[in-house]
Amino acid sequence: MKKIRLSLSGIFRLIGAGAVITALVLSIGIFCATQDMTAVMGCLITAGVLSVWAAVLIRMLQYRLVLFTDEVCRTIDDMMQGEAAPRMIFDNDTLLDRISYQLNRLYQMEQARKKTIEEQQADLQGLISHISHQVKTPAANLKMAADTLLEQQLSPGQQNAYLQSMNTEIDKLDFLMRVLVKSSRLETGVITLEKQLAPIYETLASALGGIFLKAEEKNLQVAVDCPEDLSVPHDPKWTAEALFNILENAVKYTPAGGTIRVSVVRWEAYTKIDITDTGRGIPESHQAAIFKRFYREPEVHHMEGIGIGLYLTREIIAKQNGQVKVSSGTGAGSTFTVFLPNN
Asked: Contact, 72 vs 80, CB < 8 A?
């Protein structure tokens, strides 16, 4: 069965026609029953007055609906064009005003989503730019070494030196790709952190295991003060990664013969992990920037690294509702403090 769809004007005309027909039928019925024209005229006058009031009411309702429709259309247009939120009509807590309110909420949600997308696009462009910059140097070194091997007659010793150099650059590219993949997977939620009640001593031992060889090469003294029975809700694997990044920087920037101290203390709401070194220190003006992705101080550009370790550390700890702070000064060493919530 085909459905009949009437326009708003058609519905009003249909109501008006029904009212007129009803008045005529009622008048005829009254005349047939009473044979009194006075009663019929009274009925017709009453029906006429009611019809006038009904017409006025319908006209006002139609006008209100037209205004509301215009507001809705303008709201939708602004939503599509991304302009400022329109002013809506809020007279009373009516059904139309509720719809208007929901449209404004939808508009605000759409604007927030658009802003998020723009920020993500800006982050993606920045990431691509940083990747290009980081890849450029090892790629150029590989190309230069390969061209030298192909175009020049070199002794076996020289060839071996170039091959070792190429192998080093390949290791740098491999490390860069692994770190970037890890970072992107963590940011996009592909990798989720799973907190569990686990001994922080074991997590810290896992992080320290990655730096002991380099610390021994530089004759650095590593001291650890951590209760073995202290358990904290955290993701052991990723927290070890975060602590390792701090420790690796401590080894890298501490001169030979220096000291690295790690201490763990349980507070009422947080467990505090301090990692202190006797390295070169960080100027106060740079301390807010060191957690940015790919940031490196100008003074250490000659040293190995890509400037993503502390960024990953902050992301990992933040995803566990924790915090990372730094206290340092030029030539006075640095103390990185990690706060992990106890619940």
From this structure: no
pLDDT digits (tens, 9 = 90+) for 49-80: 777 777 777 778 777 777 777 777 776 777 67
Residue entry with tokens 């467990």: 271
pLDDT tens digits, one per residue of 168-199: 888 878 877 777 777 666 666 656 788 999 99
CA atoms within 13 A on the CB side of 305: 25
Q: Is the pTM of this model over 0.90?
A: no
Rounded Cα distance, 295 and 289, in Å: 7
